[in-house]
Structures are given as structure tokens and as C-alpha cells.
């Protein structure tokens, strides 16, 4: 087999424009909205749970610290697909019995939320603990209690420091949403990867996977550049604005020169 035949075979396997043209409209109409709903909803819930875990992790209560530590170690240590299977298939029959719903979509959201909470909790904890202890001591010296001092002074500074890491975690969550296909979502609930997998299985061609990859790149690359910009902005700080009188003086000196 010569080079031309190899390139032709690769093109037919990965760049079948007809196969991609068939799958892309469904990815736009069904897959993309479901992927974004999974990622955004899980990100919001995971952020709230992660903040709770972070506060438990730095709590003075040893029981709360141990609970947060065990939860974080277990959820971070297990493979993501295993966590989704355990939650989705393990609790699925119970949820169906209680609610009568046959959709595994809420369980997919729950699994992604619980996984992201373990990572986001560590991000928040490291950010809060990076704030100088003098901030807390100074706030307490002004008469604030421990809770208000943490809530009003320490936690906001810690969150600001870890914003790039939080966006990175959201990028990872977008990609991990592709793993919920193992739960067998309904046709109207399937995300980008599941739709590509379905078309690839029926056509025997890998081009739908390539189309799915392009969708993920379109979602994640802008966020990656946003993280880089945000990180540079937080490191350098905003340039100080000159007062009108100072600005006029600088312009006057420049004109005299």
C-alpha cells in the first residue's frame, strides 16, 4: 500500500464529510445543549458543595475535617467513569422506585456534581489557606467574630486567587460530561459524544467522533485562552488610573518637551 492509498484510507475513515454532515445538525440541536446543561448545572452544584467541603476542611471541628478529607480522597481517587456507574446504576433503581422516572439524566448531573465538588473543594481550600493569617487576625482585632471574618475578608480573597483554577476545572467538567453515555441516556438527553458514538456505530466510520471532538474544541479552547488571560490579569493587577490633575500634568510636561 503506497502513501496515496494510506492517505485516502485515513481520509475516508476520519474525514468523511457526508457522515459528518449527517451528525453535525443533531449535535447542534441536541448534543450541544445537553452538554452545556450537564456542565453548567454540575459546575454550579459542585461549586456550592466544594465551598462547603473547603470550609469543613479548615474547620476547627475534627469530625468535619475528617468527613471532608475522606470524601475528597475517595471521589478524587476513583476513576470518573466508575463513579458515574456506581451513582447512576447503583442509585438508579432507588430513584426510579421513588419518583417513577426512567431518565438517568438527574443521576448523571448528580455524579458529575459530586466528582467536581471534590476537586473544587481542594481548590477553594488551597486558596483560602493561601491568604495571610494576618488578615484574619487583623479582622478579629477589629471586633469581628471568626465566622464573619472568614466570610467577609478571608474567603473572598481566597476565591479571587483561585479563579483560573476554577475555570480549568469547568473545562475538565465539559470533557468529563462525555462519560455519562455509560448510563444510557434517552435520545433527547444525549450529549455530543453519545450522538457521535451512535452515528459511528451505525455507519462504521470514525468521522462522527472527529465531529464530536471539534465541538469539544470549540467549547474548551476559548475557555483555555480566557484562563490564561485571567491568570495574567490577576498576577499583574489592574493599572492604576491617574487622577485628572496628574494626567494633565503629564500631558503638559510632554508638550513642553
From TrEMBL:
This protein's record includes keyword Repeat: no
Pfam family, one: BPD_transp_1
Membrane topology: Multi-pass membrane protein
Record PROSITE patterns: ABC_TM1
Gene3D superfamilies per record: MetI-like (1.10.3720.10)
Keywords, in A-Z order: Amino-acid transport, Cell membrane, Membrane, Transmembrane, Transmembrane helix, Transport
SUPFAM superfamilies reported for this sequence: MetI-like
Location of the ABC transmembrane type-1 domain: 32-227
Domain of life: Bacteria
Main localisation: membrane
Transmembrane segment boundaries: 36-58, 78-99, 105-124, 170-188, 208-230
InterPro entries on file: AA_ABC_transptr_permease_3TM, ArtM/GltK/GlnP/TcyL/YhdX-like, MetI-like, MetI-like_sf
Entry's localization field: Cell membrane
Entry keyword Membrane: yes
Region span, Disordered: 238-257
Xref: NCBIfam families: HEQRo_perm_3TM
Family classification: Belongs to the binding-protein-dependent transport system permease family. HisMQ subfamily.
The protein, known as: ABC transmembrane type-1 domain-containing protein
Lineage per the UniProt record: Bacteria, Bacillati, Actinomycetota, Actinomycetes, Micrococcales
Amino acid at each position: 500500500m503506497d502513501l496515496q492509498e494510506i492517505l485516502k484510507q485515513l481520509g475516508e475513515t476520519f474525514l468523511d464529510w457526508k457522515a459528518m454532515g449527517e451528525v453535525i445538525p443533531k449535535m447542534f440541536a441536541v448534543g450541544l445543549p445537553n452538554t452545556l446543561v450537564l456542565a453548567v448545572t454540575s459546575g454550579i452544584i459542585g461549586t456550592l458543595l466544594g465551598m462547603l467541603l473547603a470550609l469543613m476542611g479548615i474547620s476547627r471541628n475534627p469530625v468535619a475535617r475528617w468527613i471532608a478529607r475522606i470524601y475528597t480522597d475517595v471521589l478524587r481517587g476513583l476513576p470518573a467513569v466508575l463513579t458515574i456507574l456506581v451513582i447512576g446504576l447503583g442509585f438508579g433503581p432507588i430513584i426510579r422506585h421513588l419518583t417513577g422516572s426512567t431518565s438517568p439524566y438527574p443521576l448523571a448531573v448528580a455524579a458529575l456534581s459530586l466528582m467536581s465538588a471534590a476537586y473544587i473543594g481542594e481548590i477553594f481550600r488551597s486558596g483560602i489557606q493561601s491568604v495571610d493569617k494576618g488578615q484574619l487576625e487583623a479582622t478579629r482585632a477589629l471586633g469581628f467574630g471568626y465566622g464573619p471574618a472568614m466570610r467577609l475578608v478571608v474567603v473572598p480573597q481566597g476565591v479571587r486567587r483561585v479563579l483560573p483554577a476554577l475555570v480549568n476545572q469547568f473545562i475538565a467538567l465539559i470533557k468529563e460530561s462525555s462519560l455519562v453515555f455509560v448510563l444510557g441516556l434517552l435520545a433527547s438527553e444525549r450529549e455530543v459524544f453519545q450522538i457521535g458514538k451512535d452515528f459511528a456505530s451505525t455507519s462504521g466510520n470514525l468521522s462522527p467522533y472527529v465531529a464530536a471532538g471539534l465541538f469539544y474544541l470549540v467549547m474548551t479552547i476559548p475557555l483555555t485562552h480566557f484562563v490564561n488571560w485571567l491568570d495574567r490579569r490577576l498576577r499583574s493587577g489592574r493599572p492604576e488610573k491617574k487622577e485628572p490633575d496628574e494626567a494633565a500634568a503629564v500631558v503638559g510636561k510632554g508638550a513642553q518637551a
